[in-house]
Specification:
Largest sheet: 6 strands, mixed
Helix content: 25-40%
Bound molecules: iron/sulfur cluster
Order of helices and strands: HEEHHEHHEEEHEHEEEEHEHEEHH
Radius of gyration: 22 Å
Distance between the termini: 44 Å
Strand content: 15-25%
Oligomer: single chain
Number of helices: 11
């Protein structure tokens, strides 16, 4: 049985999924990503040297000119090492040759190729006892701007907000950074957060732009703040190439993951998308709000009423509401292990 969730987590989850649904169906407000529907994802690592040390609440990815080519490859995240490996399209080369410039063990190379073959990014064959790998499609230039959104439903409980926003601005990994809140935003609040950070007020399904975000220098060197607790702040410079790789990792992670990172619980009190939203949100009739099934549902919940989990097709909801493609036509189906060769 999961431990009872913190009240702030409950509020933040509800706020986060509502905002994600609004951005996916209504597009990005203001000037952050105008005119196109972004890819929306939740809980994505936003550091370079320590990607998991800063987790971004909501990430928006602007589809670029070659978005359709990317969507045609696979609905999943393409592993970074598979993109970096030198695998020619349509010509099989020995696996070791493809990974010659990457510092990866043979076991890791095999795992990367296995996953890349499963999702249809490469094909494998065995010739004279050696594994060879062939690219299925070139990796396209598929994304444009990246936007990081930090959610703070209630500004009277700012927590780590200031440190998080200073981290994002100093690193400049995203093109824009936005604070989203349900609170009334005063001049005092605006004065306390970095000038470059935009502010949205989100309530009753509507987003009001309080302040537009400034464009950050995402292709210039940045500074990653690793530790502010020490007597002296520990920082690490970040080169533009490292930022570019981290941006690709973020875009891929966002494309593969999306924001519906939950399942529907086996409880009679859960209500399906049709009643509340066509986006696939987990609404609980007992609490009268959206719930995070992973941390709130189960026999420990006072309203738990065992029942069959409702069949909700979250992939179908994502495909219907966003540019993501669940099952691209003609993509290579899952391949089994090397034994088949
Ligand atoms: S009542 Fe059921 S759906 Fe609602 S939080 Fe509890 S276990 Fe989850």
């Amino acid at each position: 049985m999961p431990a009872p969730p913190r009240p702030s987590h409950v509020r933040e989850f509800d706020f986060e999924v509502r905002l994600s649904a609004r951005l996916e169906t209504g597009g990005c407000p203001g000037e952050a990503i105008p005119e196109v529907d972004p890819v929306v994802a939740r809980q994505i690592g936003g550091g370079v040297h320590a990607p998991g040390a800063r987790v971004i609440d909501v990430v928006l990815v602007e589809p670029g000119t070659a978005f359709e080519e990317r969507a045609a490859i696979t609905p999943e995240r393409i592993p970074d090492a598979a993109i970096e490996a030198d695998v020619p399209v349509g010509r099989a080369v020995p696996r070791r040759e493809a990974f010659a410039d990457l510092d990866l063990s043979p076991e890791r190379q095999r795992a990367v190729v296995e996953r890349a073959a499963e999702i249809g990014f490469v094909e494998r064959e065995r010739r004279a006892g050696r594994e060879r790998v062939r690219g299925v499609a070139p990796y396209p230039d598929w994304y444009g701007d990246l936007v990081a959104i930090e959610n703070k439903p209630d500004l009277t409980e700012p927590g780590d907000l200031n440190r998080q926003l200073r981290f994002d601005v100093a690193l400049g990994l995203f093109d824009r950074v936005v604070l989203a809140t349900g609170s009334h935003v005063t001049r005092g609040h605006l004065n306390r957060i970095p000038d470059a950070v935009g502010v949205w007020r989100f309530r009753d399904g509507e987003v009001d732009v309080v302040r537009e975000p400034a464009r950050l220098p995402a292709d210039a060197p940045g500074t990653e703040i690793l530790d502010e607790a020490a007597a002296r702040t520990a920082i690490e410079p970040v080169a533009p190439d490292d930022k570019a790789r981290a941006r690709r990792r973020i875009a891929e992670r966002a494309y593969g993951k999306g924001w519906r990172t939950y399942g529907f619980p086996a409880c009679a009190r859960i209500e399906t998308a049709e009643r509340h939203d066509a986006c696939g949100l987990p609404y609980c009739a007992f609490y009268d709000r959206f719930v995070d099934p992973a941390s709130e549902c189960g026999p420990g919940c006072p309203g738990y009423d065992p029942a069959e989990a409702p069949g909700v097709d979250l992939d179908a909801a994502r495909e219907e509401n966003s540019p993501w493609v669940a099952d691209p036509e003609g993509r290579v189906r899952t391949q089994s292990g090397l034994d088949r060769f």
